[in-house]
Amino acid sequence: MSISLPLANQSTRIAVVDRELCNPQKCALECMRACPINRQNKPCIAIDPIINKAVIDEDLCIGCRLCVPACPFEAIRIVNLPKELAQNPVHQFFKNSFRLYKLPTPKHGNVLALVGRNGVGKTTALKILTGNLIPNLGNYSKPGDYAAIIKQFRGKELQTFFTQAKEKKLSFSFKPQIIDKIPEQFKGKVRDLLKKTDERKELEKLAKELQIDSILDNQLSELSGGELQRVAIAATLLKESSAYFLDEPTSYLDVKQRLIMAGAVRKIAENGKIVVVVEHDLAVLDYLADYVNVFFGEPAVYGVVSETRSSKNGVNEFLAGYLKTENVRIRKKELKFSINSNKQEKKTVFLAYPSLEKTFSNFKLTVDEGRIMRGEVVAVVGANGIGKSTFVKMLAGVEKSDNDSMNFKLKVSYKPQYLKTEENITVNELLFREKIDFELFRTEFEQKLDLHKFLEKKLDTLSGGELQKVAIAVTLCKPCDLVLLDEPTAFIDIEDRLVIADILRHIAFVKDLPILVVDHDILFQDYVADRIMVFDGIPSRKGQGKPAQELIQGMNDFLKTLDITFRRDPESGRLRANKPGSLLDLEQKKANQYYALH
Predict the structure, then answer these.
(1) What are the C-alpha distances in Å from 362 to residues 386, 398, 399?
(2) Under a CB-based contact definition with an 8 Å cutoff, are residues 152 and 159 in contact?
(3) How far is 22 from 67, CA to CA, in rounded Å?
């Protein structure tokens, strides 16, 4: 039976079928059997013979959702949109696929930040605004058309934007989210790559500002994640363009580098250019951005773009879970920040480790002797290239110290900074192979992090955020005495970061398990940590790890070494970076309060 493919309609019903998960050859067509409309001999759900996947007629669907739990592969999602959103989407990829409603409005001379969960359309919006995807207004049967888009946004700022895009009066510079493939796409030295993009003739100046001048003659293939990220940012900003788009530019950068990057990006906007940034680090976001568009919806099903707000109001409304202008609640729970109150009775010592040394050809690490307590989460902070990852590798037994004094018989579960994927293995197969605690996985991870949605997916098809969540779950669910997590927030959105933080604190408390977390998201570390371990020194030359200390004093000492002050937002309690030289910055430094408590 052939299946017609009608255009998206005005219905509030959204039916999404994940074509990667849907597998009619391995099921008994439970979705079709469960559907009451199908039982009336009407083809609400059918198998399309061309793609050999289930398709759902949204006009016939009554929203009973019986097909959702019936599908053995969890491939179906049925959602009813509020009536005010029941209009043609800006873009829909194909039948029963994700759709995006509304678009951000870029502004000349300002930085616009896009904030929201992964999977609700931020990257799709970037592709549309950069001309890499012409939106089809929900008419997925044919390619998008600029004439229709211009008509759709008549009388709005986006009409001018798309008119200029159509007439090729706009030029775009884009930094993608995933930067790992850059060394594969361009063989050679950093300087050679940047020379190719240096249309503004500011290579030396920007390289110095972003602190990559010392690696200009290094091979791209030899760079660390933080170095590669800064090179990618430099390559983007060196182009002479009308608009600059950066997708998650803070990944792999330390706190100082994040603020330096923000300063460089702001200079571009101050020259009258359009700048749009996707970012999850809320501690530096309103230091970076002037305005915010909040993306909300259901991941992989639909996304809606809010009206533009000031950065402060946008972030606070996002955290509150309620958008005032739209009168829409986007989350049941308000996200609040405060000093970690997870201070149970005095903890007992789990591990007393001796002073450690590790010498490489151009770098030497010294770690003072210290103690790790049972049931605590220790934040490990410091600049890139200062020895944090080397320290946790020594604890994990991946690296040996020069004095070879790590002779503890411990079961250590370790998640490295850089994740490698295997081909032809599903998430489920990995979980069984690693012999994890499935009870813990089901109670703490499967639903809270939506891992149940891609258990049957292959590892090499997962997004960066999905892969990171799987790696965190595996690490924490292995039988062990000590957990080590290196940069667990990379590619994870703010909501999932806080969910992960709650899980870490809960597991540490319930299992009396010590957990060490290396991460550069100051908001995450502030939220999760009982104590903090600070690494100081000269990046890529020498580093010193100090013993873990109480959070407040340790965070203050750490920020003092960076000459950065943070204040707390009175509404949400989140940390916000002060602009250097501002009144608040000067007052806090004078009072030696680099880490504000109020």
Answers:
(1) 12, 20, 17
(2) no
(3) 12
| Complete DSSP assignment for 130-182 | TTSS---TT-TTS---HHHHHHHTTTSHHHHHHHHHHTT---EEEE-S--TTH
Q: Which residue has the tokens 């790890």?
A: 545
Task: Give 302's strand partners.
Answer: 99, 298
pLDDT at 297: 92
* Residue 539: DSSP 8-state: T
Q: What is the CATH number of domain 101-329?
A: 3.40.50.300
Residue type at position 86? A
Residue type, 401: S
Smallest Cα–Cα separation from 198: which of 216, 180, 181, 215? 216
Q: What is the DSSP string of 242-271?
A: SEEEEESTTTT--HHHHHHHHHHHHHHHHT
CATH fold of the domain at 349-562: Rossmann fold (3.40.50)
Q: Are 405 and 394 in contact (CB under 8 A)?
A: no
Per-residue confidence (pLDDT) for residue 84, from 0 to 100: 67
Q: What is the DSSP string of 391-426?
A: HHHHHHTSS--TT--------EEEE-SS----TT-B
In this prediction, the residues of the chain whose per-residue pLDDT falls under 70 are 1-11, 83-86, 338-346, 404-407
Q: How far apart are CA 463 and CA 432, in angstroms?
A: 21
Q: Where are the beta strands (DSSP E) in 368-509?
A: 370-373, 377-381, 412-415, 482-486
pLDDT of residue 583: 94
Residues of the chain within CATH 3.30.70.20 domain(s) are: 1-79
User: What CA–CA distance (Å, rounded) separates 119 from 14?
Assistant: 16
Residue 458 pairs with which residues in a beta bridge?
426
Where in the chain is CATH 3.40.50.300? Answer: 101-329, 349-562
Q: How far apart are CA 296 and CA 302, in angstroms?
A: 8
What pLDDT does residue 402 have? Answer: 87
Q: Which two tokens stand for residue 516?
A: 């060490």
Q: What angle do CA 120, 121, 122 make, to 5 degrees?
A: 110
Sign of CA dihedral 387, 348, 441, 478: positive
Counting beta carbons within 10 angstroms of the beta carbon of residue 403, is it exposed (0 to 12), middle (13 to 18) or buried (19 or more)? exposed
3-state secondary structure of 462: coil
Q: Which residue has the tokens 């950093």?
A: 190
Give me the architecture of the 1-79 domain, per CATH. Answer: 2-Layer Sandwich (3.30)
Could you give the 3-state DSSP secondary structure of residue 353?
A: strand
Burial class, 260, CB count within 10 angstroms (exposed 0-12 / middle 13-18 / buried 19+): middle
Could you tell me if 334 and 321 are in contact, meaning their C-beta atoms sit under 8 angstroms apart?
Answer: yes
Show Cβ contacts of residue 582 under 8 Å, excluding neighbours closer than 6 positions: none
Collapsing DSSP states into helix, strand and coil, what is residue 374?
A: coil
What angle do the packed helices 551-562 and 255-270 form, to 10 degrees? 50
pLDDT at 547: 95
Of 154, 568, 549, 237, the C-alpha closest to 368 is 549
The structure tokens 């580098």 sit at 257
pLDDT for the residue numbered 9? 42
Coil, strand or helix at 24: helix
Q: 566 forms bridges with which residues in the sheet?
A: 577, 595
